[in-house]
Structures are given as C-alpha cells and as structure tokens.
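User: I want to check something. If I give you two sequences, will you return the structure for each one separately, not as a complex?

Assistant: Yes, each is folded on its own. Here is the first sequence with its structure:
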Amino acid sequence: MTLPLPDGEPRERPVAISCGEPAGIGPEVAARAWAVLAGEIPMLWLGDPRHLPGDVPHRAVTDPAEALAVCADALPVLAHDFGPPVTPGRAQAAHAQGVIDMIAAGVELVRSGAASALCTAPIHKKALKDGAGFAHPGHTEYLAALAGVDQVVMMLASDQLRVVPATIHIPLSEVPRQLTPAGLTRTIEITIAGLRDLFGIARPRIAVSGLNPHAGEGGAMGHEELDWIAPLIGELRAAGHDVTGPLPADTMFHAAARARYDAAVAMYHDQALIPIKTLDFDKGVNVTLGLPFVRTSPDHGTAFDIAGQGLANPTSMIEAIRLAHRMGSGTAA
C-alpha cells in the first residue's frame, strides 16, 4: 500500500529484502533481481554488503526513504556487519544471529510503514538453531511470532496457479491426525481473506481437495470426506463463501479445472506443491497469508551446492519481489 503525504499525494516505498543465509544463493539472486527490476520496483536489501556479488553495484543507505533515489543506479543496502567473512556453501554459526536480526528488521520496516512489503531470501534452519538457538520450526513461524498471530497460511502462487497446503512439513502418516475441521476451516478462511484483501478478488472461488484418492470415492477409499470434509464445505457455502469440494486431487489441476477457481486448498504438502512446481517451477512464489503485512519469498532453498558460482537462477526471486510490490501497492489482482 502507498502512504499519503501531508498534501494527500501517495508516497512510494521500497520492498524490503532480508538477506537470508549468506552462504547460500540469497544474496546472489537478490542482486540479480535488482539488475532486472531496478527501473521498475524500488527495493532495499538488508544484510552485509560484503556478501553481495562484486559485479553488482550497491550503495549503503541509512534511511529506507533514500532507496527510492538510489535504486535506479545501485542496489540500496541497509548494512549490517555479520562479522567473519562468508564461505559460499558453508553456513557459519557466527552469522546466525545476523540472519535472524535482518528478518526482524524487515518486519519492523514494513510494520512501521517504511517499506511496502517484505521479501525474504531462504534461510538454513539448522544453521540458525545451531548458531543462535532459533526456536521456530521455520521462517513462516518466526514471522507469525513477530506479528503476534497464532495461525498463518502458506500459499504458493504463480500466474498459472495459487495453491495452499492445509498441512505442511509433517510426515504423510501424521496428516490424518493433524488435519482437523477447525484447522481446515481456519485455513480456508485465511485464504479467502488473503485473496480478497491482498489480491483484490471480491468473492474468491476456493476449490478444496479430498484427502483420499478419488476424494474417498463414496467411502470406498476413506471416510474423512463423508464424515467431516464435505459437511465443513457445506457450512462455508451456507455462510456465503464460494467453496467447492471435496474434489479428487488428480483432476483439480488441468487447465480447464484451474479456470474454475482462484485458489486450491490441498490437504498435504506434496498434493499442493507437485502441481505448481510442475506447471511453473521457476516462477512460483511463496506468499504468507494471515500476517498483518505482506510477505513473499522465492520458492527455493539456499542451494549450497551452487552458491558463489554465478549459477543461481534469479527468476523466483524476481517474481517474489514483483508480487510483493503488487500486493504492497494494492495492484496484485
């Protein structure tokens, strides 16, 4: 969103980009993204400038507002000293607190109105736990804790598909136990609110998959659909929401099916992520719904095996910054 100036004119703000794990590809893809987007989107990178590729110009700023004038010629950097030099591909305990601090700084910039949105580069959770006692299961949970919210939703989005996994990083054997009526209802409600408030879709259409093959096939392949998933969807429809399902997951993601909904809610990680990574592997963006600010992230990890070699593909980071900017300025529909 843009903030008004005293005379009523809107004020543009940069997208804040947290550095992520400095030994991974985060600094490189952020710098390459700036090279593509410099004339299109104002941005501000948070991290140690020594970690950026040497062939990309950057300039230190002390105030996020300075980024607007700097961004066309150099990547604006709100600098933080991480201490020991980085070794590509090898996370260091000494860097862990700096990574955490840059995420927190990005959240503060967005919540204060100094930045329009937060785009986070990938972190290495074990490195943060080993180096700084990081107590959260992942990036998203830490953001939720900083925001003071008890449930958020991970959406993977591209031009071809938006999909939400109702359960995420748990063993498949745990899914039936972790998947509850209250949790699924809240996931769908947060998805609807996110599509309405951040993507400008007045009445979002939500397709919900079944848990079992063929959505249980009338109880022949499982009873969850009959016992509580279908009744839950009926209650949401009675409340005025455009929700359909439970649908067989194997017929939800072809082109004609995708045209009938604005987002799909799937029951577990692979049921959601396989379709989008097959359809649009490089351009998928991770969006966190349910936060009081806009957060996106590229849909890839730290890629230690190629870090520092100039091989990283910045496409997902480019798309994550673009979507963050659109969402933050109210133009994501």
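And separately, the second sequence with its own structure:
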Amino acid sequence: MINRPYTAVLIVPTGIGAAIGGYAGDALPVAKAMAKVCHRLITHPNVLNGAQLYWPLDNIFYVEGYGLDRFAQGRWGLKPVHQNRVGLILDRGIEPELRTRHIQAADATRATLGLTLTDYVVTDTPLEVELRTADSGASWGTIGHPESLLRAADKLISKSKAEAIAVVARFPDDVDSVELDNYRHGQGVDTLAGAEAVISHLIVREFAIPCAHAPALEPLEVDESISPRAAAEELGYTFLPCVLVGLSRAPQFVSQPQTNSIWADEVDAVVIPHTACGGSAILSFSGGNTRIITVKDNTTALNVTPEYLGMETITVNSYLEALGVLVAHKAGISIDALRPTMSSLSQACD
C-alpha cells in the first residue's frame, strides 16, 4: 500500500561542466535508475536530452529550468498530461538545407513516434545567438532579437493552439575552438548550454508554457577519438528528436491546485552535484522539509558547496550511493541504521 507518492527532483545545472550531465544526455542513466526508485521523478531537459537519443518513462516529468525554479518556490504546480501539441520555432538564420533537415526530423517524430505537432513558424528576423563564457568557466549567451522569438511563440500559441514550444536556433559554428575540442573528448564545458537555457527561460517566463531548445549546427568532421559521453551529438544533422519527445509529455504549469497537480511541498528529496548548490531551485527547497542529497564525484566548474552556504544536506560520493539514500528514505528507514556504528541518544537541552 502506498501512503503517498515518493517524489524526487534530479538537478544537474546546465553549462557548468558537470562530470555527469555536462554532455549529451549522459545523466539519462542516472534518471532512469532514479525513476525506478521513486514514484515520481522531476527533472529538466539538460538531464534528459541526448540529441537523437532519448528514453521517456511515464513517471519522469520533463520541466524546463525556469519552470523548475518557479515550482520550487511554490508559485507554480505541475499538471501531468497525456499529450501536448508541440509547436516548432525555426530561426530565420538557419540555412535552407539545414532547415529542411530539421523539418524532416520533426516529420519523422510524427510518423514513427506518433507525436502531435502544429505547423512550424520561422522567426521574422534571425535570432543572432552569441556565446559567452564566465570567469568560472560556466557558459552563457545572448539573443540579438528576443522579440522575434516571442512573436513566433505567440503565433504558435494563439493561432496554432500549441501547448509546448520547441525552438531550433542557429548557433555559431566554432569547429576550430579549443573548448569544442575539449568537450568532444570528454573535458570542459558545453559552450552551447548556457545560451540554450536563455532561450527556453524567455519563453517559459513570458507564456508559462513548456519549452526546450535544440541548436542548429553544421555536422562536424568525423573524429575516431570522441568521448562516449559526447558521442550522441555526433549522430547527424539535428538534436531535435529528444526535445520533441520530452515536450510531448511535459507537464503543464498551473498557478492554482488542480486534480493530480504536483507542488513543491510534495517533494521528498532533491539530488544535485555537491559544488552546484547556489541555484534558485535548490535554495528554495533548502528552506523546507525536502531532503537534499549532494553528490561529490559529479564535479563541476563551480565551487558553491552546501558548507559554504550553511545548507544542511546528506553528502554522498556517487549516484549509486544517492540511490541507496533514496531507497532508505522512501522505506522510512534512518540511514544511520544502515551503518555499522550508531551513537546513543543524548538528552535534549533545556
């Protein structure tokens, strides 16, 4: 008998060079394992997106980062859905042949996966994405024409009745950069990730609708020494399929409780890299009764630890160990009872 659904949140912030989750869907195995432990797992596109690779599970909820922040604050709830009508925005800056490749990828998900897509919209102006890197090494970026992106999203929502938005923006090709070479070989930071987050945040903040992004890039030359963690991005012309799959079942955002909606006070545990505890969502969860588990061996370019923030957490070495903590917590068993030694009770102070 289930007293109530055990709910966990898995966060691997984007663009910070996480050892697991900093590449092309390489945190997906963690999410799959965690979904077997929890009744409900809430996570975000950076964890689940793997270019043309994906693995949807009924109890995993695909929630964009800004929406996850609002959820953690208790301002938005998550309303599970059976299916979303997904609208597709294509950047006018994408070359004709590359645009056709992305339209064909979208059509393929309709024909082979049965997804429901609206007609697509091409932005009235090239978005002109620019990439930036912070002093910490984390990536971010800017959009030259955000108003064009918002006009395209508004058209899809108001005229095509889109319930979720996928964006494909033309990103700069930088095939000779050291950063790209390091990333392809399993080191460094994904230089695209920070700018991708800016794009999806903008639409979610403006329209309170699920959104995710796939970059449009020219295929790179074949390199036999590519890291397995980055290899999903070497498979073809587009990263779009995983985004469309995720958005097709992404929960809707609601501002008032509804039947079966999920709210932050129902979250039992959050799992996050040990050095990446400064984000809005984790700070919000730390103020409540949610158990926070930090993973040491998922290193990042940051150094924002729970100790630095004065945050009470359970620190583990690996995701395997984090899974054990979740199992014990779900079973109502103190993790102290699973250790070979245990201190005696002490008397409370007056």
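Because they were folded independently, the notes below concern the second chain alone. The radius of gyration is 20 Å. The longest helix spans residues 96-113.
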